[in-house]
Amino acid sequence: MKELVEVIAKSLVDSPDEVVVTEKEDGKTIVIELHVAASDMGKVIGKQGRIAKAIRSVVKAAASKGDKKVIVDII
User: Fold this and answer.
1) What is the rounded CA–CA span in Å between residue 23 and residue 39?
2) The pTM is what?
3) Which residue from 10, 14, 27, 73 puts its CA 20 to 30 A from 36's CA?
4) DSSP of the chain, one letter per residue?
5) CATH code of the domain covering residue 49
6) Distance CA 24, CA 53 (A)
7) Exposed (0-12), middle (13-18) or buried (19+): which is 59, by Cβ within 10 Å?
8) Which residues pair with 35 in a beta bridge?
C-alpha cells in the first residue's frame, strides 16, 4: 500500500523528492501518512478534497483483498 500511495503522490506533485510516505500497522488497521511539500499540498488534496478522496478510494480498493482497514492521512 505504501508504494501505491507514493507512486500516485509523486505523479501529482511538482517536487517528487519531497514526498515521504510512512506506514504504521496497528492490529487490523494500517495508517499510511503522506507528507508533501507545502507548495504541493493543494495538488494532493484537490478542489473540495476530490483528489484526496480518489487516493483513499484507490487504496481502499487495493486493500480489499486483505483483512485490514487502511487509513490514508495527508500531512
Assistant:
1) 23
2) 0.90
3) 27
4) -HHHHHHHHHHHSS-GGG-EEEEEEETTEEEEEEE--GGGHHHHH-GGGHHHHHHHHHHHHHHTTSS-EEEEEE-
5) 3.30.300.20
6) 20
7) buried
8) 20
Cell numbers representing residue 50 in the block = 476530490
Place of cell 517536487: 15
Report residue 27 as a C-alpha cell.
492490529
Nearest to 30, CA basis, from 65, 58, 2, 61: 2
The number of distinct structural domains making up the chain is 1
Tracing cell 473540495 back to the chain, one arrives at 48
pLDDT by residue, tens only, the chain of 75 residues: 899 999 999 999 999 999 999 999 988 899 999 999 999 999 999 999 999 999 999 999 998 888 889 999 998
d(CA 6, CA 23) in angstroms, rounded, equals: 11
Domain of 21, in residue numbers: 2-74
